[in-house]
TrEMBL record:
InterPro entries: PhaG_MnhG_YufB. The keyword Transmembrane helix applies. The keyword Transmembrane helix applies. The chain crosses the membrane at residues 12-36, 48-68, 74-94. Keywords: Membrane, Transmembrane, Transmembrane helix. The lineage of its organism: Bacteria, Pseudomonadati, Pseudomonadota, Alphaproteobacteria, Hyphomicrobiales. It comes from the Bacteria. This is Potassium:proton antiporter. One of its GO terms (molecular function) is sodium:proton antiporter activity.
Length: 125
């Protein structure tokens, strides 16, 4: 049994727009994974798509279930917080691991460290 016929037309249109927009943003981010050249560019596009696209889908879900249940539904806010927090952290961890690997392998395409190790200052005496 589905509750979709009980959803008013204005809410159904709003939910449909939010879900389709969120899915489109996620798809664009996934296409960036396929289209971009380097690992560092590839890892950036899906994280933006995942965060923004999931946000649109979750807002659509909040509207749908809030209208159907006649009360504000908060479950999706918790999901959005976890995705918003974990996606950038995952991006940083993957990027730092790849950067470390590329520097150890002395890949010429990787920039040098921002803090190059230097010799300690000489004794002024």
């Amino acid at each position: 049994m589905t509750a979709a016929p009980d959803l008013p037309a204005w809410a159904a249109l709003l939910v449909a727009f939010l879900v389709v927009a969120g899915a489109a943003i996620t798809l664009i981010g996934s296409a960036g994974l396929w289209r971009l050249d380097s690992f560092y560019a590839r890892v950036h596009a899906p994280t933006l798509g995942a965060t923004l696209g999931t946000g649109g889908i979750l807002v659509g879900s909040m509207v749908c279930f809030s209208v159907l249940e006649s009360r504000f539904v908060l479950h999706e806010i918790l999901i959005a917080v976890f995705i918003t927090v974990t996606t950038p952290i995952t991006l940083m961890l993957l990027s730092r691991a790849a950067l470390y690997r590329d520097r150890v392998e002395e890949n010429p395409e990787v920039p040098a460290s921002a803090f190059p190790e230097t010799e300690p200052p000489s004794d002024p005496r």
